[in-house]
């Protein structure tokens, strides 16, 4: 059985999880130019939640996730992946042609590949968390 | 226009909302859609009739030559009008028939989706677009037949209809692809204008057979007719619409559409006229053995479908005229008769005509509608059905091939059809009053409106064929079917000729048959044992065979032991790779021994990890040593400067270890299950796999056949895709479609894992629930 962790693990997890999550977003956003990207970032985020899961158990992790069911994350991720396809149609270009817009003030490159990458991020996060949490819950329910 | 048609799907999806807003009036509100489409078609009619086909272009997938272009010519106009006008009647009728039904929104969704698919089917210009809409009608038909999904018979019938039509759909797809290849065009309009003759193409025979299989299954031609009577499990509005007026005519539409390009050969004439005539006779003969009013009508529809196929097969100008006239007439009277059958069922609570009688008093309007529609079915003047039947008989007398056979079949069918018409029109409404499960009274206006409109159409088109441009519409349709200009001028009186004499004689004989129907039916029941060996029995045994085969191969391949799965997969892989690398090509090995010391250490660690994993007697130990292998691989990626791969490998490895550890808690104590012989076998398989993969990699590395594409990626990543990280650019831009597919695979895998774990936990230890589940899986095939 996976038991809730020790003081060291609990304390570490409490501080590491936000850091890891921030790091995952950082990896996600820089992915197009430097090592990183949606898949890696999704795995890092999943690692963050898994660490928290090991420290505090399933119900505490569910509280952290609030209403975000991992299964919903999968759906949202796939939806974003599909949505990123659409703008190209309006520009009269073939399916999945990347579209780029520069947001002037902060000089940020917004693009359909970024939306797509966020979709990958969420789908990976949702899939891994879904599997891990389902496995943990089986443990919890056994007498 | 394409948008207007596709909007129908949106309307279908929003019908639950409309049902909430408009309550039981939702049907009438939804009926506005087909009514508007009908109005649009009528508004286009003058230009189509005068200036020829109308092309509405819309590219869909230009790189594959798939377009959503619509072609409106006489034939699609006729079909489009049938679909929209009868659709309007049926929707209004359904509002009364299914009033207060809990699932009426679901009914509306499927019915509207069907209507849109059918419209798309008859309007489509692209071969592949036609196929897509064709399959959509099969699927919506499945949903509608199985509308009463708690009824096992309805589910079984729905599945049967789906299997038969979709199997035909597969053949149709092959046929359409062959047609596209042979003609070099994917557009019906272009194929129609081509100089070269497809009949002389080498692919003509296979193409024709595939296309005919598709058309025959859809249009319930012998020997595929059996699904149609079973489809009567659907609510009556569905039977009236899909299984009489529209969907089953899709196959006929296809035949008519291709007649100018493919028709006229001995093969075409032979198959179509013989199969059509056989279907005609089979339908008429089986009809009089049934007392269920819907089955009676279903078999009589099969008879009509056979007639239409036969007429396309005969292919003379006369037959073309007869074809379009019969088609229009049949849709009108059969739609009305089905709706009358629905009214009878709704008001009396029984479908058995022998259990009804004397209803004329209670339901005078229904009786009048039934009488007119049945007279049209029987082909009695002055109704439109008479003109259709006269033309049909004249076409049969003028047929080039198989004339004697066709005349005989048509004559016998005519007698039987007249008996059927008399049964439907007279049996429920005249004679003694029978006690019925419900006390009958006249149907509500909404249910009388649709059939009423259709019989008024039969009557007025019969009396004044030229009225409302009926002649012009049929002229355009017949022209489209025959491929050359035809003038259709209909009239009731054709003079005294063979067709008229046949008509009169068959009328008398048919009425005689009706008088003796009860005793004839009793005599025919002797044939029941023979009937049980019909095509449906063949279908059943085929399906049972499929189930038995899949059970056998599931036991063989899916026996639930992970070790077997892996063994089978590896053996297949070994067979494939060794076939390719050892037998067909020779392995190339060009050794360059340029190995650094740190590389040896990393690889050595991997080898040690692998070895320890195989001999370890502790699961945790094995997991850790596999993990060591994974981390070493990550190290290799980093050594060869692939940071993205390295990071990914590290993270995946970490999560794999976590997942494995979670699973390990649930496993029983470690024990050695395999014998030493099995272990030797596994060792040999593993070694073979290792050696082969080594050879494969060395060969791939040694031969330099193609220029690598990495240079292109490196050069264009920043300027074209605005990214410096090539790996990521490939993932989200160059190969985004692959990534999208992988996302779906990942999501499916995760959902599978979650579902299995949750299901297990919900049913845990509850053997009863498990049994129930097993039965519900098996039931569809046994039931």
TrEMBL record, chain A:
<feature type="transmembrane region" description="Helical">
    <location>
        <begin position="112"/>
        <end position="136"/>
    </location>
</feature>
<feature type="transmembrane region" description="Helical">
    <location>
        <begin position="38"/>
        <end position="61"/>
    </location>
</feature>
<dbReference type="InterPro" id="IPR007182">
    <property type="entry name" value="MnhB"/>
</dbReference>
<dbReference type="GO" id="GO:0005886">
    <property type="term" value="C:plasma membrane"/>
</dbReference>
<feature type="transmembrane region" description="Helical">
    <location>
        <begin position="73"/>
        <end position="92"/>
    </location>
</feature>
<feature type="domain" description="Na+/H+ antiporter MnhB subunit-related protein">
    <location>
        <begin position="8"/>
        <end position="129"/>
    </location>
</feature>
<keyword id="KW-0812">Transmembrane</keyword>
<dbReference type="Pfam" id="PF04039">
    <property type="entry name" value="MnhB"/>
</dbReference>
<keyword id="KW-0472">Membrane</keyword>
<comment type="similarity">
    <text>Belongs to the CPA3 antiporters (TC 2.A.63) subunit B family.</text>
</comment>
<protein>
    <submittedName>
        <fullName>Na(+)/H(+) antiporter subunit B</fullName>
    </submittedName>
</protein>
<keyword id="KW-1133">Transmembrane helix</keyword>
<dbReference type="InterPro" id="IPR050622">
    <property type="entry name" value="CPA3_antiporter_subunitB"/>
</dbReference>
<feature type="transmembrane region" description="Helical">
    <location>
        <begin position="12"/>
        <end position="32"/>
    </location>
</feature>
<keyword id="KW-1003">Cell membrane</keyword>
From TrEMBL, chain B:
<feature type="transmembrane region" description="Helical">
    <location>
        <begin position="646"/>
        <end position="665"/>
    </location>
</feature>
<feature type="transmembrane region" description="Helical">
    <location>
        <begin position="620"/>
        <end position="640"/>
    </location>
</feature>
<feature type="transmembrane region" description="Helical">
    <location>
        <begin position="404"/>
        <end position="426"/>
    </location>
</feature>
<dbReference type="Pfam" id="PF00662">
    <property type="entry name" value="Proton_antipo_N"/>
</dbReference>
<dbReference type="InterPro" id="IPR050616">
    <property type="entry name" value="CPA3_Na-H_Antiporter_A"/>
</dbReference>
<dbReference type="GO" id="GO:0005886">
    <property type="term" value="C:plasma membrane"/>
</dbReference>
<feature type="transmembrane region" description="Helical">
    <location>
        <begin position="77"/>
        <end position="98"/>
    </location>
</feature>
<keyword id="KW-0050">Antiport</keyword>
<feature type="transmembrane region" description="Helical">
    <location>
        <begin position="201"/>
        <end position="217"/>
    </location>
</feature>
<dbReference type="Pfam" id="PF00361">
    <property type="entry name" value="Proton_antipo_M"/>
</dbReference>
<feature type="transmembrane region" description="Helical">
    <location>
        <begin position="161"/>
        <end position="181"/>
    </location>
</feature>
<feature type="domain" description="MrpA C-terminal/MbhD">
    <location>
        <begin position="605"/>
        <end position="669"/>
    </location>
</feature>
<feature type="transmembrane region" description="Helical">
    <location>
        <begin position="685"/>
        <end position="703"/>
    </location>
</feature>
<feature type="transmembrane region" description="Helical">
    <location>
        <begin position="268"/>
        <end position="289"/>
    </location>
</feature>
<dbReference type="GO" id="GO:0006811">
    <property type="term" value="P:monoatomic ion transport"/>
</dbReference>
<feature type="transmembrane region" description="Helical">
    <location>
        <begin position="492"/>
        <end position="514"/>
    </location>
</feature>
<keyword id="KW-0406">Ion transport</keyword>
<dbReference type="InterPro" id="IPR025383">
    <property type="entry name" value="MrpA_C/MbhD"/>
</dbReference>
<dbReference type="GO" id="GO:0015297">
    <property type="term" value="F:antiporter activity"/>
</dbReference>
<feature type="transmembrane region" description="Helical">
    <location>
        <begin position="296"/>
        <end position="316"/>
    </location>
</feature>
<feature type="transmembrane region" description="Helical">
    <location>
        <begin position="447"/>
        <end position="468"/>
    </location>
</feature>
<feature type="domain" description="MrpA C-terminal/MbhE">
    <location>
        <begin position="678"/>
        <end position="758"/>
    </location>
</feature>
């Amino acid at each position: 059985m996976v038991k809730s962790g020790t003081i060291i693990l609990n304390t570490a997890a409490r501080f590491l999880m936000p850091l890891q999550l921030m790091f995952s977003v950082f990896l996600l956003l820089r992915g197009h130019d430097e090592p990183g990207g949606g898949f890696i970032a999704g795995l890092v985020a999943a690692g963050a939640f898994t660490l928290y899961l090991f420290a505090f158990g399933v119900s505490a992790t569910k509280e952290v996730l609030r209403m975000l069911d991992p299964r919903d994350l999968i759906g949202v991720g796939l939806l974003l992946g599909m949505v990123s396809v659409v703008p190209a149609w309006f520009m009269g270009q073939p399916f999945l042609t990347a579209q780029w817009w520069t947001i002037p003030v902060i000089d940020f490159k917004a693009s359909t590949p970024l939306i797509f990458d966020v979709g990958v991020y969420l789908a990976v996060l949702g899939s891994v968390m879904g599997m891990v949490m389902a496995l943990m819950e089986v443990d919890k329910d056994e007498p | 226009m394409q948008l207007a048609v596709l909007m129908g799907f949106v309307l279908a999806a929003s019908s639950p909302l409309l049902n909430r807003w408009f309550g039981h009036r939702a049907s009438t509100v939804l009926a506005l859609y087909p009514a508007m489409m009908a109005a649009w078609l009528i508004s286009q009619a003058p230009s189509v009739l005068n200036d020829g086909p109308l092309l509405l272009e819309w590219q869909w997938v230009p790189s594959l030559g798939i377009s959503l272009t619509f072609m409106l010519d006489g034939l699609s106009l006729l079909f489009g009008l049938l679909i929209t006008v009868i659709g309007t009647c049926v929707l209004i009728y359904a509002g009364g028939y299914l009033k207060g039904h809990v699932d009426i929104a679901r009914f509306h969704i499927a019915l509207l989706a069907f209507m849109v698919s059918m419209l798309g089917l008859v309007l489509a210009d692209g071969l592949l677009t036609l196929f897509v809409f064709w399959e959509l009608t099969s699927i919506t038909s499945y949903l509608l037949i199985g509308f009463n999904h708690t009824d096992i018979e309805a589910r079984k019938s729905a599945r049967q209809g789906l299997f038969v039509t979709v199997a035909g759909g597969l053949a149709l797809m092959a046929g359409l692809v062959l047609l596209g290849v042979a003609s070099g065009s994917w557009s019906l309009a272009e194929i129609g204008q081509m100089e070269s003759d497809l009949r002389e193409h080498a692919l003509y025979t296979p193409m024709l057979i595939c296309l005919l299989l598709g058309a025959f299954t859809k249009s319930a031609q012998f020997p595929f007719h059996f699904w149609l009577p079973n489809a009567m499990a659907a609510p009556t509005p569905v039977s009236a619409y899909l299984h009489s007026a529209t969907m089953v005519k899709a196959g006929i539409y296809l035949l008519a559409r291709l007649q100018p390009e493919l028709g006229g050969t001995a093969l075409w004439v032979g198959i179509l006229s013989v199969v059509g005539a056989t279907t005609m006779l089979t339908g008429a003969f089986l009809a009089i053995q049934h007392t269920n009013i819907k089955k009676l009508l279903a078999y009589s529809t099969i008879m009509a479908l056979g007639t239409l196929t036969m007429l396309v097969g005969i292919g003379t100008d006369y037959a073309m005229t007869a074809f379009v006239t019969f088609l229009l007439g049949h849709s009108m009277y059969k739609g009305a008769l089905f709706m009358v059958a629905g009214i009878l069922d709704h008001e009396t609570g029984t479908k058995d005509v022998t259990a009804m009688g004397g209803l004329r008093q209670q339901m005078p309007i229904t009786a009048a509608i039934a009488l007119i529609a049945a007279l049209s079915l029987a082909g009695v003047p002055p109704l439109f059905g008479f003109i259709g039947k006269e033309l049909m008989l004249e076409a049969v007398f003028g047929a080039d091939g198989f004339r004697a056979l066709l005349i005989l079949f048509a004559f016998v069918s005519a007698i039987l059809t007249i008996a059927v018409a008399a049964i439907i029109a007279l049996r429920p409404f005249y004679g003694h009053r029978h006690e019925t499960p419900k006390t009958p009274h006249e149907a509500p206006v909404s249910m009388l409106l649709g059939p009423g409109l259709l019989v008024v159409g039969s009557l007025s088109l019969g009396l004044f064929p030229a009225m409302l441009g009926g002649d012009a519409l049929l002229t355009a349709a017949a022209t489209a079917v025959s491929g050359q200009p035809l003038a259709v001028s209909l009239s009731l009186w054709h003079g005294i000729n063979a067709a008229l004499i046949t008509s009169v004689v068959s009328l008398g004989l048919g009425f005689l048959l009706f008088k003796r129907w009860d005793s004839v039916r009793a005599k025919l029941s002797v044939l029941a044992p023979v009937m049980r060996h019909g095509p449906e029995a063949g279908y059943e045994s085929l399906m049972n065979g499929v189930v038995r085969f899949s059970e056998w191969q599931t036991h063989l391949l899916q026996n639930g032991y992970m070790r077997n799965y892996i063994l089978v997969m590896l053996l297949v892989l070994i067979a494939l790779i060794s076939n390719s690398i050892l037998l067909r090509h020779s392995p190339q090995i060009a050794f360059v021994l340029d190995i650094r010391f740190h590389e040896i250490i990393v690889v050595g660690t991997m080898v040690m990890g692998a070895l320890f994993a195989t001999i370890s007697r502790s699961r945790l130990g094995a997991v850790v040593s596999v993990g060591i292998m994974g981390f070493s691989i990550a190290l290799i990626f980093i050594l060869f400067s692939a940071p993205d791969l390295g990071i990914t490998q590290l993270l995946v490895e970490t999560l794999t270890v976590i997942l494995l550890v979670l699973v390990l808690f649930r496993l029983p104590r470690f024990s050695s299950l395999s014998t030493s012989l099995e272990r030797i076998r596994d060792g040999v398989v593993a070694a073979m796999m290792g050696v082969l993969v080594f050879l494969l990699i060395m060969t791939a590395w040694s031969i330099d056949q193609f220029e690598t594409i990495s240079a292109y990626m490196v050069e264009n990543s920043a300027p074209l895709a605005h990214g410096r990280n090539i790996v990521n650019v490939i993932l989200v831009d160059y190969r985004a479609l692959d990534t999208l597919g992988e996302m779906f695979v990942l999501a499916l895998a995760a959902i599978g894992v979650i579902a299995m774990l949750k299901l297990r936990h919900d049913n845990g230890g509850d053997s009863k629930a498990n049994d129930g589940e097993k039965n519900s899986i098996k039931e569809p095939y046994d039931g």
